[in-house]
Amino acid sequence: MFPQQDGERSWIKERLVSMDISSYTCVYKMEASNVGLDGSVNTLKLVDYGEDSTLVNWSFEIDPVEALKVLVKRAS
């Protein structure tokens, strides 16, 4: 998924925060990883796009300072 300089496989531990079937939305949080995304909150929403099509709307919130710490640590 995310290439690691040391050859280690990337991994992410996620937790489902909420799921709303009526709006086709789920929210999950990345609780731990080796890719610098710890603490990010992600939302997936399926939107009827007409003519047998579906739009997948993915959004996320992340603390850039925490992500930067992982990148700096990886570079040293």
Automatic annotation (TrEMBL):
<protein>
    <submittedName>
        <fullName>Uncharacterized protein</fullName>
    </submittedName>
</protein>
<dbReference type="InterPro" id="IPR023393">
    <property type="entry name" value="START-like_dom_sf"/>
</dbReference>
<dbReference type="InterPro" id="IPR053249">
    <property type="entry name" value="LFS"/>
</dbReference>
